[in-house]
Design a protein that fits this description.
The chain has two domains: 2-101, Nonspecific Lipid-transfer Protein, Chain A (2-Layer Sandwich), CATH 3.30.1050; 120-409, 3-Layer(aba) Sandwich (Rossmann fold), CATH 3.40.50. The protein is built from 16 helices and eleven strands. The protein has helices spanning 2-17, 62-65, 69-77, 87-101, 107-113, 120-131, 135-139, 160-174, 192-201, 212-224, 262-272, 298-305, 315-324, 336-352, 354-360, 363-381, and strands spanning 22-25, 31-33, 51-54, 82-84, 182-186, 204-209, 231-235, 245-251, 273-286, 327-334, 385-394. It has a seven-stranded mixed sheet, sandwiched between helices. A four-stranded mixed sheet has the order 2-1-3-4. Helix 3 (69-77) runs parallel beside helix 12 (298-305). 42% of the residues are buried.
Length: 411
């Protein structure tokens, strides 16, 4: 009786605030409809719900009474509730529920999250958790080159493979990569950038990663291309790299460094660059000026289930940390719109290949990535997170060696 009273109050409160393409199916067969009642696509008088939440028992109602993206995501991932619908619709409904019915997130959670030290061991463990699912898993929804970072769209209508190659070329032009130069790729993934740098730009390359799966496949790709004398793939932490490089690229990696360690990170890049070196940092940032997590518990969900120990810094924090690391910022480009599009395409691929992906991992991991990819697309589209490419060089460098304009970056 108590659960029924609470459910009635919750249902009435939700209907009083907004209409959603949502149906809630209860354990006793009862169905609660929250659509607007507008004419549906099938000609009926009621709009068909695009998302269905199935509640298996009274104990699961707590996830709906005071929802957050963390609690709803956790309930779905752990099987406490079942959710049906396209991932984009699920995320949209989840955000609406959290924004209208949820409570302010406990800031202590953020403080505790930031207390985890970024040691070599902890960072390697986090990287293995995320990237060593299996190469086949990622190949099922990434582009053929398996580029797992923001693509670059000249027009917005390119397919994913074209946009990813455009991104790699855009980076390599921005750092003015030239034949014979030595390039360091920090967080090289499955090797797409170093392979392109070697074949298209004639560079010598070192790619580093902490993922054994990535390193193994990247080395296989280098061997198949006959580039063993030009490209080296190392299983190595950026803190352990020695030598000097003409150019350095860090793509989708600095999110694992930790906000407090960014000055050390950029100082390390500074030491690894030659006197006339150029580096680019391509990475996700928060739009929270205090370096806080995304609202409604989305950051908490990602920290627990997707990127353990990951931290996002605000653009202002990144620029300051670069300066503290002895680097001069030379160019900044916002690619937030591009990453929203990239994540949307990944989501489409993931759902189109759902049957195969379920054979490559367990149900929990499938559900994590199902909502994670669509959640990222939503967050980028709504300016909760962003992505910047920042080109930099050693502070105090000779301006005579720098181009007068940005024209050199474009073909």
């Amino acid at each position: 009786m108590f659960e029924q009273m609470m459910l009635s109050a919750w249902s009435a409160g939700l209907r009083g605030k907004l209409s959603l393409p949502l149906r809630v199916e209860l354990w006793n067969g009862q169905k609660l409809e929250f659509s607007s009642g507008a004419p549906g696509a099938d000609g009926s008088g009621v709009e068909s719900p695009r998302v269905t939440i199935r509640v298996p028992g009274p104990s699961a109602l707590r996830y709906l009474r005071s929802p957050s993206l963390y609690s709803l995501g956790r309930a779905y991932v752990e099987g406490a509730i079942d959710v049906k619908g396209r991932a984009a619709d699920i995320i949209s409904v989840g955000n609406a529920l959290a924004a209208n019915l949820g409570k302010e997130r406990n800031r202590l959670v953020e403080a505790l999250r930031r207390s985890v030290p970024h040691t070599r061991e902890k960072d390697a463990e986090a990287i293995r958790y995320h990237y060593d699912v299996s190469n086949e898993f990622y190949a099922a929804w990434l582009d053929p080159a398996m580029v797992y970072s923001c693509a670059y769209f000249d027009n917005g209508d390119e397919d994913l493979a074209t946009a990813q190659q455009q991104k790699i070329d855009h980076i390599l032009r921005k750092i003015d990569l030239r034949p014979g130069q030595l390039l360091l790729d920090i967080g090289c993934g499955w090797g797409a950038l170093v392979l392109r740098a070697a074949t298209r730009f004639g560079a010598r390359c070192v790619g580093i990663t902490l993922s054994e799966n990535q390193a193994r496949l990247a080395r296989e790709r280098v061997a198949r291309a006959g580039l063993q004398g030009q490209v080296e793939i190392r299983l190595e932490d950026y803190r352990d790299v020695a030598g000097q490089f003409d150019r350095i690229a860090s793509v989708g990696m600095f999110e694992h460094v930790g906000v407090q360690h960014l000055p050390e990170y950029f100082s390390r890049i500074n030491k690894l660059m030659g006197p006339d070196g150029i580096a680019m940092n391509h990475g996700i940032t928060t739009t929270n000026v205090d370096n806080g997590a995304t609202p409604y518990g989305g950051g908490e969900f990602i920290d627990e289930y997707v990127f353990p120990h990951g931290e996002l810094a605000h653009l202002g924090t990144v620029v300051r940390a670069m300066q503290e690391g002895g680097l001069e910022v030379r160019d900044v480009e916002n690619l937030r719109r591009h990453y929203a599009r990239t994540c949307a395409l990944w989501t489409d691929n993931f759902e189109s290949n759902a049957a195969r992906i379920r054979t490559l991992t367990d149900e929990k991991r499938f559900r994590i990535w199902h909502v994670y990819l669509a959640g990222c697309a939503y967050a980028f589209a709504h300016d909760r997170i962003s992505l910047y490419q920042i080109v930099c060089g050693k502070a105090g460098g000779d301006p005579a060696g720098m181009p007068w304009s940005r024209r050199y970056m474009y073909p």
